[in-house]
Amino acid sequence: MPSTAPPVATPTAILSALPQEQQGLIELLRCPCKLSHAGREFWQGDLQGQPVVLALSRIGKVAAATTATALIERFGVRRMVFTGVAGGMGMEVKVGDVVVATDFMQHDLDVSPLFPRYEVPFYGKTRFASDAGLTALLFEAACRALESEDEKGQASLATRQFPGARVHRGQIASGDRFVSGTGESRALLAALAGAGHEVLAVEMEGAAVAQVCLDYGVPFAAVRTISDRADDSAHVDFQRFVNEVASRYAHAIVLRLLSSL
What we know:
Helices cover about 35% and strands about 25% of the residues. By secondary structure, the chain is of the alpha/beta class. It has a 5-stranded mixed beta barrel, surrounded by 4 helices.
């Protein structure tokens, strides 16, 4: 006889780059359950009425790819959303702004002369696009998060600490290097622009997760809070920024996104 049990809802994966971003979401989980797999901790539960799995990506492309694969293979997630911080690269991108990725590329990938610089071998492409529908919802959630008053009716965090803070949409570059010098940042930006890549931000995980999600056919979207300009000031008060700004941005954006799904 066919089963009469209702189907089990497949979860949404929320990947966070830093523990501070994840902790606030864990505290809001209904029926939380922690599981260990692939040397990582995963939190399952309900958030905003949606089944979710929360995980830390860890730092770097390989670690993030492993986490993304585990979320798909072990937990059967139906979509993946990434929150984290990044260094601003675009001229209009300022500290306190938010970038929602339209696509990703690896700025440190170079298999030339076998393949063109930045091209991922056997894919025939340098860019991996975010899912259009999920990215549109994430962009709207980010806009609402920055514009909304807080729970005490005060002006939004973005308005108070970063007047004129904006949400951007565009390309993000990933690489296994923390870009933190002005000379390095300018050289990287010039090299990417010369190859036709107008990059808004740089980080260390997104392109790897995007490639895994493409391989498995899982929709992927990512949002990054700009913590620095990827220059000589990139190390200044980073932990304070994460604790006071980026973690709150991530919390507000994720809750609004889940409410729209």
